[in-house]
Specification:
mainly alpha, Helicase, Ruva Protein, domain 3, 2 domains
Length: 153
């Protein structure tokens, strides 16, 4: 009975072994910068999760590296550039516009404009086909007269 009670107490104490990371900084500006960077940098392993929320080992390594760089006095841009150099543009939620990515920024707008132009031109063409000309009116009057002659005969 004692062993069962001891086992239950030990199992209930397991959550106390959970570790929460605590980072100490020299001032509040460094702590704020660290928090901002960890929310802005994406975990390379996780699916669209920042390194602040990720439990992946690589995210922990990235948080530690961000802490180290912030404590060394590097600013936000320097830390982001460091991470981009090592992990590529994927690691940053706000990738810059470069010649390689310009199509990704412009192409959706061009597709929408082309689609709207296609719709407008098609409706204009359909409206031209549907317009009633004087020749059409004359043909209609001629057909009406033919029909009336057949009816009266």
């Amino acid at each position: 009975m004692r062993y069962l009670l001891l086992a239950i107490v030990l199992m209930l104490a397991l959550p106390a072994l959970a570790v929460e990371e605590k980072y100490d900084f020299a001032n509040d500006d460094q702590a704020r910068l660290f928090s901002e960077l960890t929310k802005e940098l994406r975990c390379p392993k996780c699916q669209n999760q920042n390194i602040a929320d990720s439990d992946a080992v690589v995210a922990k390594d990235l948080r530690d590296k961000v802490e180290e760089l912030v404590k060394k006095g590097q600013n936000k841009d320097q830390v982001i550039d460091y991470m981009i150099d090592r992990y590529g543009y994927f690691v940053h939620y706000q990738p810059p516009v470069t010649p390689a990515t310009i199509l990704l920024w412009i192409l959706p707008g061009l597709i929408v404009i082309a689609g709207l132009a296609f719709i407008v031109l098609r409706q204009k063409k359909a409206a031209q086909k549907a317009s009633w000309s004087a020749a059409d009116e004359q043909k209609l009057q001629q057909l009406i007269k033919q029909y009336q002659r057949k009816e009266s005969a």
